[in-house]
Specification:
By secondary structure, the protein is mainly alpha-helical. Helices cover about 55% and strands about 5% of the residues.
Length: about 325
C-alpha cells in the first residue's frame, strides 16, 4: 500500500537524509519581534501558551519523560492543524467576496492544515489519548479558533506571525525530543530508541520498512520547520495579493523575483539561517515567468520526491 497508495489528500514532501540534516540545523532559528503586533503575538505565544502548557503537561527540556511528551504531542498537533484551515477559509471567502484570484495562499494553507492532521494521526498510532487529553484538545480548539478568526479579520499578518512563533516552539520541542532519544542514558532513549515507526508514518513519508519512531519524528520536525518559514514569510508579503518582492525564509539575504517590477522596496527576512537555499532555481524561474507578481519562496512536497511548486495557481492560471 505504501508503494501505490496515498495517505492524506494533499501532497507532502518525502524528505531525504541530507534535507533532514539541513532542517535540523535550523532548530534554533528565531524571529525577533519588530512591530507592535509581533511583540503582542510573541507574548501571547510564549507567556500565555508555551510556558503554561509546559507546566500543565509536566514537560521540561532537561531529560523529559515519555509520559509528558506523549500527550503533549497529541494536544500540540490537534491545535496546530487549526490555524491553517482558519486562514484558508478566510482567504476563500475573501476571494469569493472581492471576485479575485487568491494566488495560491489557500492551497498552501490547506496543505499545512492537512499535514498537521496527518502528524496527529501518526502520533495517535503511538499513544493513547485519555479523557484529560481529549478534553484539552476540545478546549484548545474551542478557545483558540475564535481568537484566530478575529485576529485574521483584524490583521492577517499578525495571525501568520503567531503561527510562526508557534512553529518555532514546536521545532524546539521536536529537536529536543530527537536529541534525547539519540542520547544514551536519557528516559526517552531507554523507552523510545527501539520503537518502530507506525505503518501510517512509513506510508506518508515513504520510510524504510525497518524505520524507527525517531525517523518519523525527524520527518515531523522537518515539516514543522517548513510551516515556520512559510508563515513568517507570509508576514512580509501582501495580505491581499502576492507581492513582487519576496524574501527567502532560509536565507540571510533578501531576494526579488527575477521579473519583479514596480515597488522595489526590499523586505527583511523572516528568520535568520546560514543554511543553503532549499529551492530549485528552475522551478523559481518557471513560476516567475508565468506570474511575475508571485513569490517563489514556497515549494510543495511531492510524493515522488521531486521539488514541485506548492502554489498550484502559479502553474495553473485558472485557480
Amino acid at each position: 500500500m505504501r508503494d501505490g497508495g496515498k495517505f492524506g489528500r494533499q501532497q507532502n514532501h518525502i524528505w531525504s537524509a541530507s534535507e533532514l540534516d539541513r532542517a535540523l540545523a535550523t532548530a534554533h532559528d528565531k524571529h525577533q519581534p519588530t512591530e507592535t503586533s509581533d511583540h503582542l503575538m510573541h507574548s501571547i505565544m510564549y507567556y500565555g501558551l508555551y510556558h503554561p502548557f509546559n507546566l500543565v503537561t509536566g514537560y521540561r527540556e532537561n531529560d523529559p519523560s515519555p509520559t509528558s511528551i506523549a500527550w503533549r504531542l497529541i494536544v500540540l498537533e490537534s491545535f496546530a492543524g487549526v490555524p491553517g484551515f482558519v486562514a484558508a477559509g478566510m482567504r476563500h471567502f475573501r476571494s469569493l467576496r472581492v471576485l479575485e484570484r487568491d494566488y495560491g495562499w489557500i492551497h498552501t494553507l490547506l496543505e499545512e492544515a492537512e499535514n498537521e492532521r496527518m502528524q496527529l494521526l501518526v502520533c495517535l498510532k503511538m499513544f493513547n489519548a485519555g479523557p484529560v487529553t481529549r478534553l484539552m484538545c476540545v478546549g484548545a480548539q474551542v478557545a483558540m479558533t475564535p481568537f484566530l478568526m478575529a485576529t485574521y479579520i483584524i490583521k492577517p499578518k499578525a495571525m501568520h506571525r503567531f503561527v510562526g512563533y508557534l512553529e518555532q516552539t514546536t521545532c524546539s520541542t521536536y529537536h529536543n525530543i530527537i536529541t534525547h532519544i539519540e542520547t544514551p542514558g536519557t528516559q526517552l532513549h531507554a523507552e523510545w530508541s527501539e520503537l518502530d515507526a507506525p505503518e501510517l508514518a512509513k506510508g506518508y513519508w515513504k520510510l524504510e520498512d525497518d524505520a524507527k519512531w525517531v525517523d518519523a519524528l525527524r520527518c515531523i520536525y522537518a515539516d514543522e520547520s517548513h510551516h515556520r518559514d512559510v508563515n513568517h514569510t507570509f508576514c512580509v508579503t501582501s495580505t491581499t495579493r502576492w507581492t513582487r518582492t519576496t524574501p527567502t525564509p532560509s536565507s540571510s539575504s533578501t531576494k526579488r523575483t527575477p521579473r519583479a517590477r514596480g515597488d522595489s522596496r526590499r523586505r527583511s527576512v523572516c528568520c535568520t539561517s546560514t543554511g543553503p537555499p532549499r529551492w530549485r532555481e528552475s522551478v523559481r524561474d518557471r513560476a516567475s515567468r508565468l506570474h511575475p507578481r508571485a513569490p517563489t519562496s514556497f515549494l510543495a512536497r511531492s510524493r515522488d520526491g521531486g521539488w514541485q511548486h506548492t502554489l498550484t495557481s502559479l502553474l495553473h492560471p485558472h485557480v
